[in-house]
Design goal:
This protein is an alpha+beta fold. It has two domains: about 90 residues, no CATH class; about 50 residues, no CATH class. About 35% of the residues lie in helices and about 15% in strands. It has five helices and four strands; from the N terminus they run αααααββββ. Helix 1 packs across helix 3. It is elongated and about 65 Å long.
């Protein structure tokens, strides 16, 4: 089964997930993961042949100039199961490292249960965050400008899709070579449960 995933997805499930040492927590998490993959409906009988064909095609494409390739069904089932198990482990405090002060979700964020579909790209922020061109670079830096991001945090609609939508994580980068200005804005939101 690991051949259809190419990496060890269990390593994304928190501290102590070492595939070489295989501690008891790793063995249990791996068993839970594969149990869930099969419970979701994956089987070699149903998907093994098509997954082999996809991998063969991917190998040919990787060796050509094309950069588009498709994920196997097995990989998609594993990604779904990893996210579910990560959520469960996070609920029990097993996902976050002891040394990490703030919360970070798993780095595996490109889950796509469709097969295959292009990502719909659009610009959420159209504003010019680089400031006016009638002030010098020194004045621009010293004015201590902090962009107002409130209008981007909660939206009623995004790209024709009704919301409300909450921005959890984002990045904006703008450059103006003539003005010699760059700005990088990182948005990281937190959601808290009222008790």
């Amino acid at each position: 089964m690991e051949g259809i995933v190419h990496e060890d997805p269990v390593s994304l499930l928190g501290q102590g997930m070492d595939k070489y040492q295989k501690p008891p927590a790793y063995v249990k998490a791996k068993a839970n993961l594969w149990w869930r993959v099969y419970q979701l409906g994956y089987s070699f009988e149903l998907f093994g042949k098509i997954d082999e064909e996809i991998e063969l095609r991917n190998n040919i494409i990787r060796n050509s100039d094309k950069i588009e390739w498709a994920g196997t069904y097995g990989r998609k089932y594993v990604f779904i199961a990893v996210h579910e198990l990560a959520g469960c482990r996070d609920d029990h405090g097993l996902l976050k490292p002891d040394w990490e002060l703030d919360y970070r979700r798993t780095s595996l964020v490109n889950i796509d249960p469709s097969f295959p579909i292009d990502v719909n790209k659009f610009k959420l922020a159209e504003d010019d965050f680089l400031g006016k061109d009638d002030i010098s670079i020194i004045e621009w830096i010293l004015e201590d400008y902090t962009p107002n991001m409130n209008e981007y945090l909660i939206r009623d609609e995004i790209n024709g899709e009704k919301g409300p939508w909450v921005l959890l994580d984002g990045y904006i980068g703008q450059t103006d070579n003539e003005l010699n200005r760059d700005i990088y804005i990182y948005i990281s939101s937190r959601i808290f449960c009222r008790i």
